[in-house]
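Appendix B, record 7
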Amino acid sequence: MSNISLPVATLGMPRIGPRRELKFALESYWAGKSSEAQLLEAAAGLRLANWARQRSLGATIIPSNDFSLYDHVLDTSVMVGAIPDVYGWDAGPVSLKTYFTMARGAGDGQDAGLAHADDRHGPAAQEMTKWFDTNYHYMVPEFRKDQTFELSSRKPIEEYEEAKSLGYQTRCVLIGPVTFLKLGKSADPAFNPLLLLDQLLPVYVDVLRELAAQGAEWVQLDEPCLVLDLDESSRGALRRVYAHFAKAVPGLKIMLATYFGSLADNLDTALALPIAGLHVDLVRASDQLNAITEVARSDLVLSLGVIDGRNVWRCNLQELFDRLAPAIAKLGRDRVEIAPSCSLLHIPVDLDLENHLDHDVKNWLAFSVQKIKELTTLGSALAGNQARASRLLAASRRAAGARQRSSKINNPNVTGRLAAIDQTMHCRRSSYATRTELQRARLALPVFPTTTIGSFPQTAYIRSARASHAQGKLSDAQYDQLLKAETARAVRWQEEIGLDVLVHGEFERNDMVQYFGERLSGFAFTKHGWVQSYGSRCVRPPILFGDVSRPNPMTVDCWSYAQSLTKKPVKAMLTGPVTILNWSFVREDILRSEVCLQIALAIQDEVVDLQNAGAKIIQIDEAALREGLPLRKSQWKRYLDWAVNGFRICSSVAADETQIHTHMCYSEFNDIIDAIAEMDADVISIETSRSKMELLDAFRSHKYPNQIGPGVYDIHSPRVPETAEMKNLITLARQQLSDCQLWINPDCGLKTRKWEEVRPALVNMVAAARELRAALIAQR
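Structure tokens (predicted):
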């Protein structure tokens, strides 16, 4: 039987390992339990396993330099020497201490690889934000007007050499220089980082020449900026960069990778570049194939991203074959590679580890390993080897049909509720101005009220108890008692330090989305379906496969117990519909807007029950609202209309005197401030500490009337900020907002931190608020 197949490329693989081996190696190193050599040995083992896995599955074009100890954008900053002075780097190789301090800030003791145990108030981490519209976070490069660059890390070359020495001829992956500069920021917001291109290009040329000297025939340069709205200066930068590379390294072939959307009006620019290959996303933009086929150069290799690299659904290979075969016949097989739409970084490693999943649901899924198998099957069929692939094509067709017909997907009661939605469900009873007076009278909070975002540290003790309960080693009654004891301790401690609005700590919750998904219909959950969010932080996104409803109350008992322990208000904590949607693997057989409405109605039911139980403050977190924003501005309005509508359906049932909070993670708010205002939350808390309150500019310019809690310290870093540091940030916030608008809180939830970091930080935060209140009284 012939093994002829189209070339199969993977673009990039998950770094964390099938069982989160990278996470545990990193955290062991940060805790001082293992050495740098042991960390690097574990990393090398993961790289080797990835290369071997891809080859065994039939991938023919295997990437290198897709691995990272923390983040690939940070790796690029380190590669080119874009290291701010605060980190104390003075040229030469960059140490792991510097690398992890850029990623995590200075920590205590061995944490972050620091040499001195008293260096817990050192430099803060670089700003972090979302990678395009994914839930992956990258470290934002920082540039100066007088920025210089130098080759300060040979990681891409070393990992290419490493793979080659082990018998793997790889295609090295680099972030393209234009995308890299566009992802960065400058202390002067008016400065365009693309002006640094001439200084940056020699470093890239050095890397490309070294790769070529080591025997590399191809490199993959990722320029996902090509799916954005680009101005002519950005297009000109792309033309200049790739013309320069063609002259400087003429023998090296470049596969230019674009993903997360359509090239659209950037298509002509991409096709005119002097590159050997172009990767395009045909999952999010299948309609661009015809246009590319018509006008692409006859010698241009096209990498077709035909399998979804961002979702977990099994592909209907027969349907895909029927769609692709005519285009490939027209192009010629020698000009085509097939690939995922983007790197497989965004999905779990191996479905075969999930032995507990419902059989039908599992049969509808494919993780990284299975997607590579799909590609190799499709490659065989498209290369004319249909006899070899026919059985697998037929199996995928049957699975798609079974899913479409399954009663596990469709719930007529949910359909009926959606049909009954009317305009009265889209807004609160009264205006914010009316509500806020009623809420102030009811809550009687001081100026600069202090609170936290919701979660407290998930200690090893809590995680162990949860695992024991799941394994049946701890009874329901024992587990409930343990959770109540932790909640009581947290409530007492919050009262002791003087927080104004308390939280119950969320000790019962494994994840802010998973916890709710497990209590809603239409969701499935994995045991090993981990995906990297940032660094060692991994999440297991729920799999939203069917219609959503809420069978029973989800949070009322935990909240009621916490509130019974104190006279201070305890916030009830919910996750909003857009965040549940954006942080799940979502079904694609109906519109995302419809799925969002289904979730919104379920959360609305919970708001009603909490309010009836006496909750005065209910927080509906929409941490992921911004990240779901389409990359093209022409598509923003439609998304924001249904996303805001989903939030308002949740909150519309709240009485005027019930204060509705929401929280949003790192986001650029300028572009969506009108939509945030339309959400009409009484209080919004946002992450602002790393940006030094710059994100408040949008709220000031908009004259945002509602209350805001700008984060006054970075919870993604182990460092403990001093009271004076937080007072300085609050002072900056007061320059943007009125005192009556301001709440004082951390950037985000404290689940991932340690109590020894949280306790002093929150004590300092409360002290900062009290000192500012005292100063305000003295001024009067």
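Remarks on this record: Residues 108-120 have pLDDT under 50 and may be disordered. The CA atoms of residues 437 and 657 lie 8 Å apart.
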